[in-house]
Amino acid sequence: MNTDYPVVIYGASGYTARLIAEHLRDMGVPFIAAGRNRKRIEEAMAIVPGIENARYEIVEIEHNVEALTKLLTGRKVICNTVGPFMRYNLEVAEACLRSGVHYLDTTGEQSAILQLDEHFGKEFAKAGLVMVPSTAYMYGLSEIGAQFCLETPGVDSLRLHGIGNAVPTVASAQTILDAVRRPSYYLKDNELVRYPGIENGKVCTPSGEVLITSNWGGSSNPIWFSRDGRVRNCKMDVAIWNQELYKKELEIERAYKVQLQWLPEDQLTQVMDHMAKGVTPDTPPRESRQVHRSIDICLATGNNVAVKSTIYSTGGYLTTGLLQAYAARRLMSETPRVTGLRSPSSVFGHRELMGALQSWGYASIKVEQLAAPGQPL
Ligand SMILES: NC(=O)c1ccc[n+]([C@@H]2O[C@H](COP(=O)([O-])OP(=O)(O)OC[C@H]3O[C@@H](n4cnc5c(N)ncnc54)[C@H](OP(=O)(O)O)[C@@H]3O)[C@@H](O)[C@H]2O)c1
Q1: In the structure, which protein residues have their CB atom closer than 6 angstroms to any atom of ligand 1?
Q2: What does R_g of the chain's alpha carbons equal in angstroms?
Q3: How many angstroms is it from 52 CA to the middle of ligand 1?
């Protein structure tokens, strides 16, 4: 195998991996497309727009630390898309550590982020490497919006809402259901507080429609901001335009609490994955930017300040492909200014990430100063 490929896309037969490949090609970055089944990877790569002049190689590989370490040796960064991440991220992170490679993934699951930190956070920091989960639409964009608000001194509380329109992919549906049985948290008075279960609320969209939200696994933001001394409170919820999805989530939580939680882990996973197939049986068609649009709102407050950011974006999976490729390109040639487990904005800069999203036409942001000391009465 040629060693001249700095970036590895892992899970390369998947939907998100294809979009990462598309953006890496656009940026002229050579990559390895790796995964457990060569034929499926070949089929996925064959339909990547522009693939005819991409420089890449396909590698079939087993999901274990030894095989992954061998693959990663001599590379700079991995884009890990093999989810649900709670099940599969440890082997990948350990291989990164052994081979001296930076780790990116697309998880939004709090438990998967905490698991990475618990097992490898300190060692990554010692090795001068970064692990950056959530380098994805969820919840990279909402973090960018919050970071813009935090530029206003005195802000200490973040209330975030995501309003999305997406068809979940196979692994996304599994991941959403997986999150139902994991603990999730919000930040209240500097402490991470556990949600008792799915918490539904309401959000008013900019056009005045009211949608039911769910805590949707809590989002990565309370975890990131629990490590930011400026922030005391952080809570996020998500509303999907297709309001059937939160009902499905509630049904599954009920089934889990009443019937399933006593099953042994391997059986439980099988049953949950079977239920996920009811949400998404097969890989959905490529996203349409005319349909799949999202709004991410952050209202940030302090004693006498209030600032609101609103990000309008298009194509959550496309956006994820861009963020991954942009982050990989940065890490393949830069020494990151921070190490260990970090959020996307803290490694790459929220203004730089927003700049990338804007320049590809994927998102725009409005920041409104609602109240500040000294404003004319
Ligand atoms: N946060 C966000 O905004 C965001 C955006 C996009 C994706 N995601 C997350 O990213 C993950 C991937 O999503 P996707 O859309 O790419 O899903 P997908 O199309 O279903 O792809 C999943 C990939 O993982 C591989 N895989 C599954 N189990 C494996 C195992 N045991 N060993 C090795 N490889 C395995 C699959 O390989 P096979 O083809 O061989 O089965 C496939 O390549 C999901 O967890 C999703 O939630 C998050």
Answers
A1: 11, 13-17, 35-37, 40, 63, 81-85, 88, 106, 108, 136-138, 169-172, 175, 283, 316-317, 320
A2: 20
A3: 24
